[in-house]
């Protein structure tokens, strides 16, 4: 006897959860000036990160790490 596989319809609960999830995602993405994408966040703060890294004396940090 062969088993037939048929596509089952999603239950009302799973459809409702999917709608609620979509509403939540849309509301979170639209709040204030919060960056929407990772690339926007990276681009916005990259210069500050580079300035911070360049301000540190990396050789001094490496020497202190070698001594420990």
Write the layout of secondary structure elements.
Blueprint: H1 12-29, H2 38-55, H3 58-67
Describe it for me?
This protein has a domain at 37-68. The protein is 68% helix and 0% strand. It contains 3 helices and no strands. It has helices at residues 12-29, 38-55, 58-67. The mean pLDDT is 77.
Task: Catalogue the unreliable spans.
Answer: none
Total strand segments = 0
**Which structural class matches the secondary elements?**
mainly alpha
The main β sheet shows up as: none
- Rg (C-alpha, Å): 25 Å
Q: Helix coverage percent of residues? A: 55-70%
Looking at the structure, what is the overall shape? elongated
Average pLDDT, to the nearest integer? 77
Proportion in β-strands: under 5%
Please count the helical segments. 3
In brief:
This protein is mainly α. The chain is 68% helix and 0% strand. The protein contains three helices and no strands.
Features:
68 residues, mainly alpha
């Amino acid at each position: 006897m062969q088993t037939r596989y048929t596509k089952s319809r999603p239950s009302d609960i799973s459809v409702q959860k999917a709608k609620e999830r979509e509403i939540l995602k849309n509301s979170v993405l639209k709040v204030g000036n919060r960056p929407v994408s990772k690339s926007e966040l990276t681009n916005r703060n990259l210069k500050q990160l580079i300035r911070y890294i360049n301000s540190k004396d990396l050789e001094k940090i490496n020497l202190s790490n070698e001594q420990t």
